[in-house]
Amino acid sequence: MKKNIVLLDLMIYVALPLFVWNILRDYTGDYYAMLLSSVPGILYTIYRFIEMKKVNTFGLFILFTLIVGTLIDILAGSSLQLLWNNVYYAAAISLFFILTMIIRRPITLYFGLDFAELQGYDRSFNKRLFYKKPVYRMFQLITLCFAMRSGILAIVKAWLIMEYGVEAFDKGIILRQAFSWIMTGVTVAGFFYIGKIIKDSPHLMKEVEEELHSEKRTTV
Q1: How many other CB atoms sit within 10 Å of the CB of residue 180?
Q2: What pTM value is reported for the model?
């Protein structure tokens, strides 16, 4: 499964939706073909969520976006409105990422905590470590990249709709997956760089250890 993750993503998020869309639209109409084309991705995302075997910030985010995205599609009522709803949704997600930065709770920092915890690292220790300035800045930058990804996607999708109408649907599928892969690369690179910062800055680990030790002495 893990070895073929890129191939599976390509097949389920791109190939199958395009196949369903192009085959069924003549029989069901554009709107229902769009809805049905999203079913493989929904089922696959649910499977990936269950496979994590742990409810955490990242899992809840995936589940929330899946539920909201599905409801937005179902309630659209028409194919063109469905496309525009996805534009508004992408813009809203972009604003959400920016909001987490403004309130100094960049959501990618919590994603990082989730991934580190799954590898056996202490969450409370890492949370303090991740809020150290050089590490925290990187999480802010990664979150900004996520915000820009959703914002740019919304703008490009809006242009495609105005340019091609309903025919923008298949182009949007390809575009969304391409952006997803780009962001995966940015995130992985960012996390690797964060790991390098921590490795090259042992004093950060020592600071956290001293803070925790000091707190323990205070509470005793």
Answers
A1: 15
A2: 0.79
Give tens-digit pLDDT for 23-75: 776 677 767 777 787 788 778 777 777 776 666 788 788 878 888 888 888 88
**Number of domains forming the structure of the chain:** 1
Instruction: Tell me the residue range of the domain where 27 lies.
Output: 5-219
Beta-strand (E) ranges in the chain?
A: none
Cα distances from 136 to residues 57, 132, 143, 149, in angstroms, run: 17, 6, 11, 20
Q: Which residue has the tokens 């809840």?
A: 60
The b-or-e profile of 68-104 (16+ CB within 10 A means b, else e) is ebbebbeebeebbebbebbbebbbebbeebbebbeee
The structure tokens 């890492």 sit at 126
What's the pLDDT band for 1 if we cut at 50, 70, 90? Answer: very low
Find the helix packing angle between 30-37 and 168-200, rounded to 10°.
30
